[in-house]
Model the fold of this input.
Amino acid sequence: KLNIIYNSWNNEDDGVPLYSCLTCTACTNACPQLVDYDSYVDIRRSLIVGGPQAEIAHTVLQAVLAAEAEEDADEDFITVEDYPLTSNIGYYPGCVDYLDQEMVFSHVNEGDMNLGDATTSAFTLFDEMEMDVSYLGRDFLKCCGHDQKWQGLDEVFEKLKAYNQKKIEQSGIDTLVSSCAECFRTFARDYELDGVKVMHTTEFLIENGFDMNLKAEDETTVTFHDPCRLGRQMGIYEEPRELIAGVEGVELVEMEHHGEDAMCCGVSSMMSCNENARSLRVTRMEEIRATGADTMLTSCPKCVSHFECLKFEGDERYEDIEILDVVSFLARQVEAKKAKVTSESISRTEVEA
Done:
């Protein structure tokens, strides 16, 4: 990363492109002076004229998200007055999650991945906890702007931020929850949401006493991948693990690199999805295999999608490893418990009859 910074500030090029940095904060974590290298990269990218000079994955999607930043697109979003807000707690699904529900976006990759499941699962848990949470869909709020910010498109980001910030303030929401680590980090650190508490879903569940007495149908071993935006950048490590530990019959085995030392999934801000990124995912998948875990859990839909993309490429070594959001994993246990209770109730009724 120092090489990238030196080259860019001195207009030199030794083949290490500015956009190859994942801004995953691993360098800062390793630095004895805790130098914030990501900020240097962020500032330098914003000075590039003409947009990011990088490999952008899903260019059509990125163009759509950038277009909605414009004022002309405001009329496509439902106003605060017309939106069904029933609670002071709002849940924002994020772009990948929302688009997967509306357009089945991930199935372009020919797999079983369903990124929209994170939102469905979150509300399964909220309902079980009898908590009233308003769904702040992408027909109400625009993209949070995470990718645009880290691609160096500051003008686009500021437009998205201004719209969303005003809308959230008008809504009366005082707690904003998201299962997307990137959205969570962006709302919490890059917005000025006075009086609004921004929380990741795992953090929200723990704070509100999530304890469903869950038990896995079959004993299983899982491992947990710490998303860069959630872990190193926001300091949330224990909450997901505490939720996993609360499920009886589930053993959590850590990978070689975990917590502050966790490896990145290989792609940030939909940029540079290339062989270098793939090699990172392969290394990470090998760490998963080494744990003997049946499932890799994480807390970011983009991490899920990036690891699933590797599986879609047809590498048979990884086809038996399930990749799942921790919220989806918990909701699965809740649904299994409810199904068991229903089945036992029917059996008792039949016996009595």
The chain has a mean pLDDT of 85. The first helix runs from residue 2 to 9. The radius of gyration is 21 Å.
